User: Fold this.
Amino acid sequence: MAKVTWPSAVSLGLVAVLAGAWLVPGCGGSAKRTVQPPDGSAGEAGADSTGSGGKGGASHAGNGGSAATAATGEGGAGESGEGGVAGEGGESAAAGAGAGIGVGGAGAMLPDLDAGSDCVAPTDTTLLSPTVAGLPTAGLALWLRADRGVYLSGDQHVCAWVDQSGADRVFVPANQFTRPLWEGAGLGGKAAVHVDGVGHHVATGGVLDIPPTSGRTLIAVERLVNTSARCGAIQQGQSGTPGTYLMMEANTYQGVPDHESVYLTNNDYSTPLATSTLPRVHTYTLKTLMPGLDVLPNIDYRVNGTSLSLVRNNAGLGNGTIEDISGMNYTAIGSDCSDFYIAEAIVYSRALTVAESASIEAALEARYGIQP
Assistant:
């Protein structure tokens, strides 16, 4: 009942990463951080092209797992904190054992990256202000916005996407052949990343320094083109496992076809809301990830500001309880998606309150012209 499929990385990424040799070719000298592609092998989420795969739909690969060991290097502006949150104008702080991840101070800049010899760095390298954008700073672990931090090839494909949280996280495609497309007016007249094929997602190693039992909130501004295929806007998971994943996902495994859904550790839940090609703001809140607790009382899924009812699909490996996620080792944007746009991906290392979620949703809806 597994999730991701990254077959394109097998022939290039897996061999090279294991050899420790595949760093993207340099274009700016040795002082720049080089970025590595996420490694990945096929997932167990469905029938492969030979018809010999697992349990899901035809768009998914056969047995195996999925991985994103994309180490992007150390360094950058952030330093480890003990859960403290940096204020505006202060230093950035990566989440430690406490409250969450801080954000970059005023004038904070993107890390100096070498994203490839055919890739151009963004013109404006100043980090955005979450406060100005209507985002709480406490616990902000990831903030990808398609109009900032995107390294592009000459044909407008994404070489690297750097987040605005101040933690210097870098998301990259599996290789130069699976780069998603950047479009300046892809969603609501604003910039968006177009994941235009299965495997054309971006990913980074690790789970954003969020402790395994901690709650978290995932927010995505997205627009489906293919409304009938599975599509995980934001996903965290453990490569090589049958179901150790969490995500907001359209058309989840064995769920109600053509409906919005969510997934948590072998448990998939459908909502009454049909998928749509209209832009939407999705908010998936997990209050805790303590193993053994019931899933339903501890998750909430909102679309365009409305909390949706959730019905578990019983044909999977789960039993309705939260399972151990301590082995999760990657975070991906657009996993399994065959055709969709994403303008923003935001993750908090804590469960946001309803009031906080509503405030963020209102700000995003206003920015992208989305009707609540």
